[in-house]
Specification:
The chain has twelve helices and twelve strands. By secondary structure, the protein is α/β, with parallel strands linked by helices. The chain has a single domain, classed as Aldolase class I (TIM Barrel, Alpha-Beta Barrel), CATH 3.20.20. A twelve-stranded mixed beta sheet has the order 7-8-9-6-5-4-3-2-1-10-11-12. Helix 1 runs parallel beside helix 2. The two termini are about 25 Å apart. Bound molecules: S-adenosylmethionine (SAM) and iron/sulfur cluster. The site of iron/sulfur cluster has 13 residues, from helix 12.
Length: about 325
């Protein structure tokens, strides 16, 4: 098993397929995108498969494909097919813009759950945050995936004075739809203009929900290693969740490890330290010692940013890449 020095067993691998994206969410990407790694520095479909197989050999049973936008990668179908041959639960996080065309591929390869990011239910606000005019496409895709029988989760990054007024509208979507609406606290990364004042905290979300649905809020059981705290409104079909990496992190049960599109292992989303897997792989050397070293260096909490002061220190954010190049 891939165990770190705090006894946490790592069974969940998130693989970023690309640094590219067809949206430009302000909290994730600069307007003009980020400098991209040369193509030959990125993992090929075969290299992704080989690396993933090694993780599966040591206990990984869940793989999520992310990015950038995973579906912009031309060989996305090939990668999905290769990974579907492994004994893992496969998941995908996407902005939904291209997802419709892949429905048959996802079904054929056993993908049952899809996470789609949508930060506003208003076309103009969606366009403001993503800097692209794709609201209708994404909204229709969410409905289509539900109709096609997928379990659909929505990711919403909450930002003060921007979309916090939509918390209740998002929760109301779960009244007669079997959706999971996940509110994510805005996190600091290189160049994303993060500021504690822009944060909508877990407590603020719960206060708003309790005010709007008095005595109707039910706490649900969380799955082991869940990074979200799960709730529902009594009588509603769907549920909602809060991912509070900033105010109430879930590091003590973390089972996640990440690989960037250029084949570097990150032992934590918040950690600036990276461990290349692609270099030894291409040199014909074993990658297990690198994986073990990355786990030995994993901090107990948020890549070592274990106090609010450290989290608010911009110097520490800039040691980490932007979210789009880590793979969220
Ligand atoms: N492009 C895909 C998407 O948007 O779903 C996958 C990659 S994206 C980096 C993965 C998730 O990270 C998205 O739900 C996005 O909203 C979230 N994310 C990006 N930057 C974030 C930040 N600064 N704080 C919190 N969540 C963030
Ligand atoms: Fe692209 Fe996803 Fe980042 Fe938005 S959050 S810019 S969709 S990678």
């Amino acid at each position: 098993m891939l165990t770190d020095s705090f006894g946490r067993k790592h069974t969940y691998l998130r693989i970023s397929l690309t640094e590219k994206c067809n949206l430009r969410c302000t909290y994730c990407m600069p307007a003009n995108g980020i400098p991209l790694s040369p193509r030959e520095h990125l993992m090929s479909a075969d290299e992704i498969h080989t690396i993933a197989k090694e993780f599966v050999r040591f206990g990984v049973n869940k793989i999520r494909l992310t990015g950038g936008e995973p579906m912009v990668r031309k060989d996305f179908p090939l990668i999905l097919e290769k990974l579907a041959s492994l004994p893992v639960e496969l998941g995908i996080t996407t902005n939904g813009v291209l997802a419709e065309r892949f429905i048959p591929l996802l079904k054929d390869n056993g993908v049952k759950t899809i996470t789609i990011s949508i930060d506003s239910l208003h076309k103009d606000k969606f366009e403001k945050i993503t800097r692209r005019n794709e609201f209708e496409k994404v909204w229709n895709t969410i409905q289509l995936f539900q109709k096609e029988g997928f379990k659909v989760k929505l990711n919403i990054v909450l930002i003060k004075n921007f979309n916090e007024d939509e918390i209740i509208d998002f929760i109301n979507l779960t009244k007669d739809r079997n959706l999971v609406v996940r509110f994510i606290e805005f996190m600091p990364f290189d160049g994303n203009q993060w500021d504690m004042d822009k944060l909508v905290t877990q407590q603020e979300i719960l206060d708003k929900v309790n005010y709007n649905f008095p005595l109707q809020l039910k706490r649900l059981d969380d799955a082991p290693n869940d990074t979200s705290r799960n709730y529902k409104i009594a009588g509603y079909i769907g549920s909602f969740a809060i991912i509070s990496s900033v105010t109430n992190p879930f590091c003590d049960t973390c089972n996640r490890i990440r690989i960037t599109a250029d084949g570097k292992l990150k032992n934590c989303l918040f950690s600036g330290k990276e461990f290349s897997l692609l270099k030894p792989l291409r040199a014909g050397q074993p990658i297990l010692p690198v994986i073990q070293s990355a786990l030995e260096h994993k901090f107990a909490t948020r890549g070592g940013m274990d106090t609010p002061e450290k989290l608010e220190n911009p110097e520490l954010h800039s040691k980490n890449r932007s979210m789009t190049s880590i793979g969220g």
